[in-house]
Design a protein that fits this description.
Elements: H1 3-16, H2 22-30, E1 65-68, E2 72-75, E3 82-86, E4 89-96, E5 99-107, E6 111-117, H3 122-133, H4 135-171, H5 177-191, H6 198-205, H7 209-214, E7 216-220, E8 223-236, E9 243-256, H8 283-286
Antiparallel strand pairs: 1-2, 1-7, 3-6, 4-5, 6-9, 7-8, 8-9
Amino acid sequence: MSIMDSLNTAQDFLNQNNPLTSDQQAQYKSDGFLLPATFSADGNGLPYTKVSSGHSGQIIRNIITWFIPEFGIVRMYINPERITYTHKKLINKDRTKGGYTLQYWGEQLSTISLSGTTGSSGVEGINMLYEMYRAEQYAFDAVGLTLAASNANTDLASKAMGMLGGAVGSIFGGGGSDTGSAIGGLLGGILGTDSPNNNALAAKNITSLAQLAFTVEMYYNGWVYRGFFEDMTINEQANDFLWNYQITFTVTQRRGYRVNYFPWARSPGQGPSRDNTPHSFDLNKINEGLPFPPGSVPGI
């Protein structure tokens, strides 16, 4: 299966199955959302030179999809009007008497700025984006309630075992506090309420706010970005009654490989543009079903 076939299959499946079931969500999460092959650099050229021309094209609607921890897949109502990808390298430049010294520290975390309007979804579209932006707070509510219940049950069981141990100790003539505690500890161990790991077990295994916030994933047309939301700005306008937003998403990981999706695009792997530069898509396989007749777009 070609790169474009994989992308089209994934997008068509999403369009037909919304919302996804838990099994479908797990499958999409496990295989990276049917990502295309990631080409590697070698002695024969950069990765882009490995992308062959003449893909089988298909006109589809690519909508940004988010994977939110503990909640699953969330699809945007409408794509942002503008997406800005910012990449920076961390290089220190120091002036010395002998000239400049440069220190290369690798790459800084990339950022994605999404800006647009929620369109006809209005403020309810803003609600969706805002709740997605702070989803870790909602996800942690269940964790907090579970911890509170666990602590309450542990305290109640400990007090009950202490009282029972003291009562049993007094019956057998061991009224001392040490004897009562020992018997209470023995009973608690038998009943499974006084394990030395019980008090620390919940604290060691709970999901932290940081983990929930830092593992959001954005899927868009072959690229998958993992990271966290850094800020969100909402603007309500009276002149057109639209709700505008701007979201900054900081990237900690990028997967996948994105390829051309317009039928007139040409392959850059063949060198400078010429009249015979091959198209990214096989025109014989994409003219059928186009929303415009062949010949109405330059290059077709």
